[in-house]
Each structure stands twice: as structure tokens, then as C-alpha cells.
Design a protein that fits this description.
The chain is of the alpha/beta class and 186 residues long. The chain has a single domain, classed as 4-Layer Sandwich (Purple Acid Phosphatase, chain A, domain 2). Helices cover 16% and strands 30% of the residues. A five-stranded mixed β-sheet has the order 3-2-1-9-10, with helices on one face. Strands 4-5-6-8-7 form a five-stranded mixed β-sheet, covered by helices on one side. α2 links the parallel β2 and β3. α1 runs parallel beside α2.
């Protein structure tokens, strides 16, 4: 006799949505999270809108949230050094998240890139500039390779449409991408 057993396996999805610079537009961020909820393990937030993240965490308690504060997040609870930069590990890949204002990213990425490489990061993520960035910096004998990513601003982009990012880690490979947010939704 053949007995078929039904098993449920939890599918581990390593796709995270990445937001920065929401500046009070929790609704726009929450709409994007809702639209992608099924395929998303969590959210990475890169500053300037910590109150928006708090709202999203309450709306989506099943998701994992990683967040750092930005220069406009002035609540006393976000002033400590632990809120400025964090090195997180997802599927064995180290991701340095920061807003970037303490590393001068508006005037160039050199200091942030150097710090990320010294930290052993595979990916550097930052906000602050309100401009989407996606770059791969090859390594050499002296420096490790590094992915550099800025999701752009989810509410006040410097150029183009409001945007967000996505990072997927699968079989040791890193895939970074951007998505746009309809201006009427922010």
C-alpha cells in the first residue's frame, strides 16, 4: 500500500525590499510592501523616515525589519551610534547599511566604500542623496569586490520617479534592482 504524505515546507525567500528617505510617506512604502508581501522576507530601511518604518512594522509584523536613522530622524531614541550604521548578514552575505550622511555620500562615495571594504561587507547600502545608485566595484589583491546600492528616495527623488530597491540573495548570488513608485501613491 502506498501512503502519500502531505508535507508543508516553509519556503525561505531571501528577497528584501529596500527603502530610504520616505520623509513621512509611510502610505507609499506600505503600499509597495503590500504589493510584494508574498515574495518578501523583510524590509531594509536606510534612514529619514523612522516613524514610517514604525508604522510599517506594525502593519507587517510577519516581516523582518532592519533600519538605520538618517539626519532628519531627530527623535532622541535614534541618536545613538548603533542607529547610524549596521552590518547585517543575510544568507551568508554581509550588508553594511547606513544613511550615509556621516560618511559624506552627498560629496562622493569614497569614504563609505572604504569603510564598507574595511568592514568586510559584500554590499554597501545607503540613502541620503535621493538618487538611485547600483554599481559593482571589482576587487583586487588589496581590496574586496563590493556592490554599492542606493534605492533612491521613496518620496522626494532628486531625479525621476520615487523609487525603492530590492535585494535577492540566492545560491550565494546577489541580485539588486530598483522599482518605481507612482507619485500619486506617495
Amino acid at each position: 500500500m502506498y501512503i502519500r504524505r502531505e508535507c508543508e515546507y516553509e519556503r525561505k525567500n531571501m528577497t528584501y525590499l529596500v527603502f530610504s528617505d520616505t520623509h513621512g510617506s509611510a502610505a507609499g512604502m506600505c503600499r509597495i510592501i503590500e504589493q510584494n508581501r508574498r515574495d518578501t522576507a523583510g524590509v531594509i530601511f536606510l534612514g529619514d523616515g523612522m516613524s514610517d518604518v514604525e508604522k510599517a512594522e506594525k502593519a507587517f509584523p510577519e516581516l523582518t525589519f532592519y533600519a538605520v536613522a538618517g539626519n532628519c530622524d531627530v527623535s532622541a531614541k535614534y541618536l545613538g551610534r548603533e542607529w547610524q550604521e549596521k552590518l547585517i548578514t543575510l544568507e551568508g552575505k554581509k550588508i553594511l547599511i547606513m544613511h550615509g550622511h556621516t560618511r559624506g555620500v552627498k560629496w562622493g562615495m569614497e569614504e563609505a566604500v572604504s569603510f564598507a571594504r574595511r568592514s568586510g561587507a559584500d554590499v554597501l547600502m545607503f540613502g541620503h542623496t535621493h538618487e538611485a545608485v547600483e554599481e559593482f566595484l571589482p576587487g583586487d589583491i588589496m581590496r574586496r569586490e563590493l556592490y554599492v546600492f542606493n534605492p533612491g528616495s521613496a518620496s522626494r527623488p532628486r531625479y525621476g520617479e520615487p523609487s525603492f530597491g530590492r535585494i535577492t540573495i540566492q545560491n550565494g548570488c546577489i541580485l539588486l534592482s530598483h522599482g518605481s513608485i507612482n507619485r500619486r501613491e506617495v
